[in-house]
Structures are given as C-alpha cells and as structure tokens.
Specification:
Structural class: mainly alpha
Radius of gyration: 15 Å
Number of strands: 0
Number of domains: 1
Low-confidence stretches: none
Oligomer: single chain
Length: 54
C-alpha cells in the first residue's frame, strides 16, 4: 500500500492501526521506492543549484 502512494493516515485507517507508530512498524522501504525517492531528491537539488533536469 505504501508503494502505491498511500499516506500513513490512510494506511492506519485501512489496517485498523490506532497509532502512527503501529503503522510505521509495517512500512518497509523497497529498493524501487528508495531509488524513486533518491531520484526525486537529486532533481530537486540540481534545480536549486541551477542545473537542468535530465
């Protein structure tokens, strides 16, 4: 669900978790998601430095 873009609040509601801590225990970063986040951060950094987006 997280890889599909679900927020922590939506995950909590769907899974019946009472706290964000409980929901976060089950959120595991996948290699693909980790790469997507790193790529987006790289683009943001390059844009702030005046570089062009690839």
């Amino acid at each position: 669900m997280v890889a599909a873009g679900t927020s922590t609040r939506e995950l909590m509601t769907r899974m019946g978790h009472g706290t964000a801590r409980a929901a976060l225990i089950y959120q595991h970063v996948t290699a693909d998601r980790d790469r997507a986040i790193a790529d987006r951060l790289g683009v943001m950094i390059r844009q702030r430095q005046g570089g062009a987006e690839p």
